[in-house]
Specification:
Layout lengths: L1 E2 L2 E2 L13 E3 L1 H7 L3 E5 L9 H14 L4 E6 L2 H13 L2 E7 L4 H9 L3 E6 L2 H17 L5 E3 L5 H20 L7 E5 L4 H12 L7 E6 L4 H8 L22 H7 L4 E6 L1 H15 L5 H11 L3 H5 L9 E5 L7 H11 L11 H4 L2
Parallel strand pairs: 4-12, 5-6, 5-8, 6-7, 9-10, 9-12, 10-11
Antiparallel strand pairs: 1-2, 3-4
Helix pairs in contact: 2-3, 2-6, 6-7, 10-11, 10-13
């Protein structure tokens, strides 16, 4: 393809960007140790998904794909739409119902075809696969992009950790005391674990957060094998895969991954706290991640597994599927207080 009249090879097109790693004074105050935020919400597509999905899309296009199909809770679809737009190919995305209209408009602005595939990701995925079969029956070809269960996706996500190594070093730190993330289908968690193994951090704990009602990883860890949920009841829909990929269950048996759960109400409240503290709007899935620190429970989770002087790295996964009206609606529905001084009285926050 070409840009500005200059021919560019697919493999030379940059899709994801190196995101900032910033020190958080408010979260460090709560944790009693340095907390750094890896701002994946600043990716062009709005979430970490562009790393793995983008890499998967590039491989597909390099091998001749001209039409990409993805099922998504929102973020993977947005990443596929963005990647397809940049790579000059067609994208068809099957996403969950309930996405705000401004979010749906982003898909159209990127030139992708958007279809509402169902109320949860698993149904969207089944609908996407029926579409692919229909296209095949009509003699048309398209390439399926899995949103989380793919080695290419894990490889793409692992680049996040390689960046963190360099960024922590420039901040005067070595390895972290823990990396905190959320878990949906398991793609990000697998990528983080692989990346940490690659840089020699396999001994560093990962804190893996889920909400009750979207807790397929937690149940799998307890069972020692993948467990399929009957339904998703959490408001954190982007965490809502009925079953995580086998890879993260295997990883949990080989290294320290601390699976923790949080109520929807706290996840949403943490989104509002984060908006107040860092002026960034994120979705409840990311609120679940943030709750590990905002709740004051990080020390309990780690149980002195790492030195208190080691920083905590929190992956801010994104917010491409939420707007302020949606967040406020969830807050009202769950009874989240409008005054959020419960954890941080305003006079204590003044520096």
């Amino acid at each position: 393809m070409s840009e500005g009249g200059v021919s560019i090879r697919t493999e030379d097109i940059d899709l994801h960007v190196q995101t900032p790693l910033i020190y958080s004074a408010p979260l460090s105050k709560v944790a009693g140790r340095s907390v750094f935020l890896k701002l994946e919400n600043t990716q062009p597509s709005g979430s970490f998904k562009l790393r793995g999905i983008g890499y998967s899309c590039k491989l597909a296009v390099r091998n001749g794909a001209t039409h990409l199909v993805c099922s998504s809770g929102g973020n993977a679809g947005m990443a596929t739409a963005y990647a397809a737009n940049r790579l000059g190919v067609k994208a068809t995305v099957f996403t969950m119902d309930g996405l705000p209209q401004p979010v749906l408009k982003k898909f159209s602005d990127l030139g992708s075809d958007i279809h509402i595939g169902g109320p949860i990701w698993d149904i969207c995925d089944a609908t996407a696969k029926k579409y692919i079969q229909k296209m095949k029956d009509e003699g048309k070809t398209c390439h399926y992009i899995h949103p989380f269960d793919s080695p290419a996706v894990w490889d793409g996500h692992s680049t996040l950790i390689h960046e963190v190594v360099e960024q922590l070093a420039r901040s005067g730190h070595g390895e972290p005391g823990a990396v905190v993330t959320c878990v949906g289908g398991g793609g990000l968690l697998a990528g983080i674990a692989h990346g940490m193994e690659q840089v020699g951090w396999n001994h560093v704990p990962i804190v893996a957060m889920e909400t009750y009602g979207a807790d397929s990883f937690n149940k799998a860890v307890k069972a020692g094998k993948p467990v399929k949920l009957e339904k998703i009841t959490s408001c954190a829909k982007t965490l809502g895969a009925l079953q995580v990929c086998d890879e993260v269950v295997s990883l949990a048996q080989k290294r320290t991954i601390l699976s923790q759960l949080v109520e929807d109400k706290l996840a949403v409240e943490c989104c509002k706290l984060f908006l107040r503290d860092h002026q960034m709007l994120v979705e409840p899935a990311c609120g679940a991640t943030l709750s590990a620190v905002y709740s004051g429970k990080m020390g309990d989770y780690l149980e002195e597994k790492t030195p208190a002087t080691s920083p905590i790295v929190v992956v801010i996964c994104g917010g491409a599927t939420v707007d302020i009206d949606t967040l406020n609606g969830l807050a009202d529905q769950l009874g989240v207080e409008t005054k959020l001084e419960k954890y941080f009285p305003l006079e204590e926050m003044r520096l």
